[in-house]
């Protein structure tokens, strides 16, 4: 079943999923969350700076492939992973392959990552005074990308399906134009560590720390299914996943610590507070 014709359809599905996630995460109006987000961007310089920094890191990741093309570096380490793992991915894919499962996991892989990042930012900053989990999310995601990008540049590992003839790239069954539409955002040899694993696991850890139990259950479930999907779809090696889990643990712990320092020691200079102080005087 074809789900995506182009990146436009991916954007539409992502918008729908984000709206549903926000409704679930805050048990309220998702448009109120969006309005609150815009309000924070305008009124809080600290909030704004963190969000811009996050966008800058995401842009850097997008630019990584352009940097890679301009590098005179042809070393590839995929054969090491294959020699260690053997046919793990091929065996898993052949065991579970099913058309309905393929459709669901393609949807989760393509839409789930960005939808959960956006929704997490909304959930953690909506009606929150300290916004500590918002800052923790920003720091942790930035760390994920900053640490992963050097590996992508200097430790290239090809996706499993492109190296192992016994593995099929099941992504194409639901997203036939993946190679022309989505591939510019995700290099064929940018496998280690698995960012899908690291970022979803990071979001899962943060969701547990947030204290929002129903949100944690949802995010953790998505993380587990996404980790399964990276093997099932024929994309990542088992070692990629292990690297992603290690990166997620480090980024989450450091992200939370940085957020605590940020919230406790760096005052948020909201104009509304300044006005309030002037009135008191």
From TrEMBL:
Residues 92-252 form the Inositolphosphotransferase Aur1/Ipt1 domain. Keywords: Membrane, Transmembrane, Transmembrane helix. The chain crosses the membrane at residues 12-35, 47-63, 106-126, 133-155, 215-239. GO terms for cellular component: membrane. InterPro entries: Aur1/Ipt1, PAP2/HPO_sf. Pfam families: PAP2_3. This is PAP2 superfamily protein. It comes from Paenibacillus cellulosilyticus.
């Amino acid at each position: 079943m074809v789900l995506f014709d182009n990146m436009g359809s991916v954007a539409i599905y992502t918008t729908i999923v984000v709206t549903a996630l926000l409704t679930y995460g805050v048990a309220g109006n998702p448009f109120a969350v969006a309005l609150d987000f815009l309000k924070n961007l305008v009124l809080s310089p600290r909030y704004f700076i963190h969000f811009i920094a996050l966008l800058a890191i995401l842009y850097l990741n997008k630019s990584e492939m352009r940097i890679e093309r301009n590098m005179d570096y042809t070393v590839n380490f995929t054969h090491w992973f294959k020699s260690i793992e053997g046919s793990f991915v091929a065996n898993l894919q052949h065991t579970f392959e099913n058309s309905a499962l393929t459709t669901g996991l393609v949807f989760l892989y393509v839409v789930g990552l960005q939808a959960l990042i956006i929704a997490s930012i909304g959930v953690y900053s909506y009606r929150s005074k300290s916004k500590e989990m918002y800052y923790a999310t920003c720091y942790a995601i930035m760390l994920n990308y900053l640490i992963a990008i050097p590996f992508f540049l200097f430790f290239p590992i090809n996706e499993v399906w492109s190296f192992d003839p016994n593995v099929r790239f099941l992504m194409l069954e639901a997203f036939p134009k993946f190679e022309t539409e989505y591939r510019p955002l995700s290099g064929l040899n940018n496998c280690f560590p698995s960012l899908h694993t690291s970022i979803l696991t990071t979001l899962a850890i943060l969701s547990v720390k947030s204290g929002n139990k129903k949100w944690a259950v949802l995010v953790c479930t998505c993380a587990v299914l996404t980790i399964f999907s990276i093997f099932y779809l024929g994309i990542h090696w088992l070692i990629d996943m292990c690297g992603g889990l290690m990166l997620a643990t480090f980024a989450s712990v450091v992200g939370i610590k940085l957020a605590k320092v940020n919230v406790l020691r760096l005052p948020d200079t909201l104009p509304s507070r300044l006005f309030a102080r002037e009135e008191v005087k």
